[in-house]
Design goal:
single chain; Rossmann fold; four-stranded parallel β-sheet; 5 helices; 6 strands; 25% strand
Length: 142
């Protein structure tokens, strides 16, 4: 199949992988690192730098969605999330009504963190609840 190029005004999405986890789940095939939370600040700075270096062809397209996936993006504090979303908005044409999704692990979510993520610009959560059964959670290493 031959794909036609996207029109210049076709909206795009930005996916940002956050590779940090509290622990590695036995079923996970994603690139993740446990016990490396001390690197989060440096990683966020690198993500911001990469957003600056995005080729003009991508930076000039309207952005309809931003997705922070992982890993466990909810290990980031709200200030780091704000910093990433702000860099997206500064260096890309992010629509004012863009959907900004963040994957979260239900463990460690507090009202304060959720409010901080909302203030940072997150308007949709993807909560990783693989099961609500305690035995099932143990089996999954959660």
């Amino acid at each position: 199949m031959i794909l036609a190029p996207l029109p210049n005004d076709a909206p795009i999405g930005i996916y940002i992988h956050v590779p940090f986890c509290a622990h590695i789940c036995p079923y996970c095939d994603f690139t993740t690192y446990a016990g490396k939370e001390n690197l989060i600040g440096r990683y966020v700075a690198c993500v911001e730098r990469e957003l600056v270096l995005t080729p003009a062809a991508a930076a000039s397209r309207p952005v309809a969605t931003i997705f922070l996936g992982g890993g466990t993006p909810s290990l980031l504090d709200p200030a780091h999330v704000w910093s990433i979303i702000d860099a997206c908005r500064q260096h890309h044409m992010v629509a004012p009504d863009a959907e900004v999704t963040m994957e979260c692990n239900p463990n460690g979510l507090t009202a304060g963190r959720l409010a901080g993520y909302r203030e940072a610009g997150v308007n949709r959560l993807s909560i990783g609840a693989q099961t609500l059964d305690r035995r099932g959670l143990r089996t999954l290493g959660r």
